[in-house]
Specification:
This protein has 365 residues and is an alpha+beta fold. The chain is built from 16 helices and ten strands. InterPro entries: 4Fe4S_Fe-S-bd (IPR017896), 4Fe4S_Fe_S_CS (IPR017900), QueG (IPR004453), QueG_DUF1730 (IPR013542).
Amino acid sequence: MNLGHDNLSGSQDGLASLASRIKAWGRELGFDEVGVADTDLATAEAGLMAWLEAGCHGQMDYMYKHGTKRSRPAELEPGTLRVISARMSYLPDAADALTVLNDPSKAYVSRYALGRDYHKVLRARLQKLADQIVDVLPSAYRVFVDSAPVMEVALAEKAGLGWRGKHSLLLSRSAGSFFFLGEIYTDLPLPVDASVGEHCGSCSACMTACPTGAIVAPYQVDARRCISYLTIELKEAIPEAFRPQIGNRIYGCDDCQLVCPWNRFARQAAELDFVPRHGLDCEELVKLFHWTQTEFNERMAGSPIYRIGYERWSRNLAVALGNAPGMEAVLGALQSRLNDASALVREHVEWALARHHVLPPEAAV
């Protein structure tokens, strides 16, 4: 928390005026929309607890280790009365996503991870916004960008930034879902914004499109089946049953968003930090698999991909190469790492070669 206060000065009209100014400042800082929510997440908390009880979080132990701090903002930051929620579009000017997905020799990286780490970008902007607020009215606050137990989608929904789609992401009628969310917890009793109704109707395109059937029910994703979880969060071997469905997706998955009708309104990012780096929007799998650990560390520095490390990066690429056409370059790349120092990588390389019938049949899936 920053500097706090005992008694808030200022009238309700003054707070309403400040809320309007906050939204204008947010737009000046590059956010597409800013809203204000209260901290009552009782309904969302019930859904979260049921999801955790069902084990849908997989190995993401951090989803429950903070208890109710995730769903009760004032427990995480005592004194919190309101949450200022902001969204920023990230869809870059990049190679067409479907074209890359349909070329099994190419590597598909989720569109949010093609550029620099969004955490730093959004945090810096939110910090500037918070600074402007306390300059006008001293207050206690804390900034969050996907870095603490915060129910960002539920809060953004309450703040009127959109509604939760059946794929569990926030949807906006004017911007689809290709955007990041960030929050400022504050003890200012700002007027709250009205939520918007949902507009998915009977559409279930996202559920049908999921390659692994991870959207097990409307608004419910079983992370254990989700390609984003399998390629980013999972630290162990990827279950063999899901490897063929992963296709050429080496970091994350956007399929549920790509088919969503609302994403015809998705906005291209204005932020230059989200521009693709190192050709990751359409690079050859073989080329990426030949990167050394030093090359990975240097090229992925400042990227959200850096967090999975070279071992899991190689694991994911090995799976994608197993799903790629059995060209000489693909087989050669895989064979070059049959004796990789990592047992995890070796396992996935062997599986990939078996997919190409290079190993004995009994080793194949």
